Amino acid sequence: MKRVVIEPNEPFNGLPFLVAREKGFFAQEGIEIEVAQGHHARTGARTDIQDWNQVASNRGHAYHLDQGQADLYWGCEWGNYRRAQDTTCGGRQIGRRAIITCGAVIVPPWSDVYTPQQLANRLIGVPFHAGTHYLTLQMLEGFLPRELIKVCDINGDAGMRYRSLLQGDVEACSVVEPFIAVAEKHGCRVICQSFYHGTDVATEAVDAETYAAINRAVSRAVKLLNADKRWAAQLFIDFHNDDPLVAALTPDDFNLSRLVFVDPAPIPGEELQRTYDWMVSWNLINPGQSFQDLVHTDTMRGAFPVPVSPDN
Asked: Cβ(58)–Cβ(83) under 8 Å?
């Protein structure tokens, strides 16, 4: 058995992987999965931190990998570009993950905000260097000049941001499932939402053969999840059942169209370049990086049957 140590994850960014492990699909591919233990990112609202470069990109995702304690993790594609730049242990992307995450910017029921334009100069809680941080910037810049988009750091899970919103720490916040469902059930409004890709990041300990085997197992889980989205919604509830707000949900509370699962895939070079250029424009990553700086191209090329061009 090939042993692969992964970082802890949640359904919103890794449900197909969790299902594949639970169903024994990795073992059937000759892969033993171990989950690294012993670290939880600090949680809490820091409305005074409004510059994302004040905080480390690996305080959550990549923490174990950069300590030499894990071989593989996954996170949003934007954040993983930044962490590939910042890595101390050679972690680079090897392909796109199997869940397309839905993220939303929400306001409380009493808010006078109804449209994205009305979020001008309103403080929005986001998790710096995580998916909905970047998603919030990309969504709102279609409606507002950049200088009118105000974000602050509330790291930890989406439940922390939701509670900070209701406490009045911020006027809006970003959330993912199951907290989009929680928010809507309790009368909050979704002001804007979109979907985003995530990627897998690994050290050279995960070679192309191993990654291909992992992807075969994950693809089997994708088929199961797409065959029964209500079951997928219940898995979100079960995972977070220690939170009473989530435990009170049923699958009927979910908009099932927000649960999107796809087969793992390579990262297209032209999409990487557009994403990278956008990040540079926001000072989210340093200029001057190449495809090879951000991606283990040999691993990705070897794991997928479709040729991958590093021209960009």
From this structure: yes
Beta bridge partners of 174: 105
253-304 confidence digits (pLDDT tens): 999 999 999 999 999 999 999 999 999 999 999 999 999 999 999 999 999 9
Cα 158 to chain centroid distance, Å, stands at: 11
Q: Are 125 and 45 in contact (CB under 8 A)?
A: yes
Q: Are 204 and 188 found together in one domain? A: no
Q: How many domains does the chain have?
A: 2
Residues 175 and 269 in one domain: no
Looking up tokens 């990654």 gives: 211
151 and 223 share a domain?
A: no
Same domain, 30 and 96: yes
Q: Are residues 111 and 231 in the same domain?
A: no
Both 177 and 233 in a single domain? no
Q: Secondary structure of the chain in the HEC alphabet?
A: CEEEEECCCCHHHHHHHHHHHHCCHHHHCCEEEEECCCCCCCCEEECCCCCHHHCCCCCECEHHHHCCCCCEEEEEHHHHHHHHHHCCCCCEEEEECCEEEEEEEEECCCCCCCCHHHHCCCEEEECCCCHHHHHHHHHHCCCCCHHHCEEEEEECCHHHHHHHHHHCCCCEEEEECCHHHHHHHCCCEEEEEEEECEEEEECCCCCHHHHHHHHHHHHHHHHHHHHCHHHHHHHHHHHCCCCHHHHCCCHHHCCHHHCEECCCECCCHHHHHHHHHHHHHCCCCCCCCCHHHHECHHHHHHHCCCCCCCCC
Instruction: Considering only the C-alpha atoms of the chain, give the largest distance between any 2 of them, rounded to a whole number of Å.
Output: 57
- Whose structure tokens read 């926001």? 282
| pTM check: above 0.85 | yes
* Token pair listed for 13: 């960014």
Region 171-183 average pLDDT: 98
Please tell me whether residues 162 and 209 are part of one structural domain.
no
Separation in Å, CA 38 to CA 41, 69, 296: 10, 10, 27
